[in-house]
Each structure stands twice: as structure tokens, then as C-alpha cells.
């Protein structure tokens, strides 16, 4: 059943809309007092993510507060490698850390595809609970990290500034990295398909670290496996089409290649010019993005002007689809009132373009 407000889904499928739909990456997060209250009640980020009821609660907080056009599952991209038994924890000041980084042939050979309805059942339960709570108001987005982005955390053992460990593997033992990426591709596809079966109405693949690769390495080690995931996904479920979005941070150089991976929409970060991106890819995919998240620290006048600029840069909607978003996740210190201003401007100004 289509949501009462299906503008987001229509835009992804490049169908006629009355206005440009809007959602924000990391829209349920620390910039909201209500999120911080729920997280404090949970005791930790992982406890919050592992509780379907609390994940549902924080997913709906920005939807209820701002009138956004899509909800996105509250979870983390590292749930998949955690389900492989790598021992995920979050360390204050360091971020995510894996107790068992994948840095040897033995560790690579021990990897397996987790059953999303067993090891990741708490995520599927959250998806189902969120769908029920949304009561068909707006669509629900499911998501995963890309095979390469997950591999970065798995091999490095956590966050990295230079990706030395995974790039050393890539250049000295590419066979091992390809093995990791194949397991990840199968795992991500199974995970996203399970989310779709549980109620997700669109899915996004976050290739957060694809932009750290050199040309040709990106196509070989990142995009090829993202494409493999896209090929394995349900593109229709329960009688409805399921749009797929691929977002590569720092991917402007390869935007034509990304647009050819089979996805319905391509996310664009704030370093790209939407006019030029659209000229390069035509209207064969919808585009999502791409305001700099830091604009939300500016004045109301600036926020409204920058929102209009993004909409103007995309240009006439015609046969194209535009989903307004930030060029990356919303910053934790963002004033919530700035988001209210942004939503108001996008919804009102974009009507003149449709």
C-alpha cells in the first residue's frame, strides 16, 4: 500500500510531484533534545540500536517534529560486520571499534554471511515496528553500508584517517580484499532484502569511504560490489516498486559510472554542482542532495537562499526526479530551528518548479 504522502517515492522513480521532497541523512540524532533523552534512557548507542521500540521512537522524532517526507530506520551501518562476530563496541572519543579486525588470511576465511532474520532480527523487528507506527503517513527508508565501506571498518578495526591497513591489503593481497567484499556484498543484499520484506519501502546504500580510493580502484573495489548488491535486491515487493539509492561521498569524479550501477537514484555530496551532475547523467536516474550541512549554522536568510540555490541548480523537474537532502549527515550541534526553516523553504519554494 502506498503511503498517504508518497512524494519521496515518486521523486525517486522520476514521476510527477507537487513539490521537492525532503529528508536528511542522520535526521534522528544528537542535535535533537528528545533523541538525547531516549539515548540516555537506553544507556548507550548500541542499547538504543538493539531495542526495536527505542529505535522506533527515535526514528519518528524528527518526522513528528519537522514534517519530513520520509523516515529512515534508526540503526548503524556496522550492524552487519557485528553480526559476523567481529565484536563491535563504541569507545568514547574513538568511535566504533572491532575486537576482531579482519587482517589475516584466517580471519578472512572465517567470514560468513549472517542470517538477517536471526543475527539481525532486532533490526527487522525495528523496521516492522516503525512501519506500524508510521501508519502509512510517509515512506520508510532502509539502509546499509556498501561492501567497501564496511570492509574499511572491518580491516582497519575501526575508523581511519588514511586507510593504510585496507589499502596495504588492496595492493599486496587483493585476493583477500576481494573475498571480504564478496562476503559483504552477499551480506548487504540479504540484509537489505530482509528490511524490504519487513517493511522498508526504499533502500539506500551508503558508500561513505568510496571516495578515498584512486581512480580504477574505486571501480574495481567499491562500485563493482555496490553494483553486485543492487543486482541482488528486490526491486518490487508486495506489488510495489522498491527504489534504490546509492550515495558515494566524494564520488563526483565517477558520477557517470555510479549512475550506471542500476540504482534508481544517486546521492550527491555538497562538493558537486547539481546542474553539471544532471548534464553528465541526464535524467536516467533521480538525484538526491546536496546542501552543505554547515549551512544550517547560518542565518535564516542564508538557509533559505541556499535551499533555493540547490533547487535552482537541479533545474526544471521535467522527467528528472530530485530529492532534497544534505550532502552528508546532519551535524550534532545543528540548531533544530534551522531544520524547521529548511523544511519550510524547500516545501514552499519548490512548488513553483513543479
Question: What would you say this structure looks like, in words?
Answer:
This protein has one domain: TIM Barrel, CATH 3.20.20.210. The protein contains 15 helices and 11 strands. It has helices at 7-12, 33-42, 45-50, 52-66, 79-86, 105-109, 121-134, 147-156, 164-172, 174-198, 217-232, 255-259, 274-281, 300-314, 336-350; strands spanning 71-72, 88-91, 95-98, 140-145, 202-207, 236-237, 240-241, 244-248, 265-267, 286-288, 322-323. The strands form 3 sheets. A 7-stranded parallel β-sheet has the order 1-4-5-8-9-10-11.
Condensed summary:
Helices cover 47% and strands 11% of the residues. With 354 residues, the protein is of the alpha/beta class. It has a 7-stranded parallel β-sheet. The chain has a two-stranded antiparallel sheet with strand order 2-3.
Q: How do the helices and strands line up, and which of them pair or pack?
A:
Layout: H1 7-12, H2 33-42, H3 45-50, H4 52-66, E1 71-72, H5 79-86, E2 88-91, E3 95-98, H6 105-109, H7 121-134, E4 140-145, H8 147-156, H9 164-172, H10 174-198, E5 202-207, H11 217-232, E6 236-237, E7 240-241, E8 244-248, H12 255-259, E9 265-267, H13 274-281, E10 286-288, H14 300-314, E11 322-323, H15 336-350
Parallel strand pairs: 1-4, 4-5, 5-8, 8-9, 9-10, 10-11
Antiparallel strand pairs: 2-3, 6-7
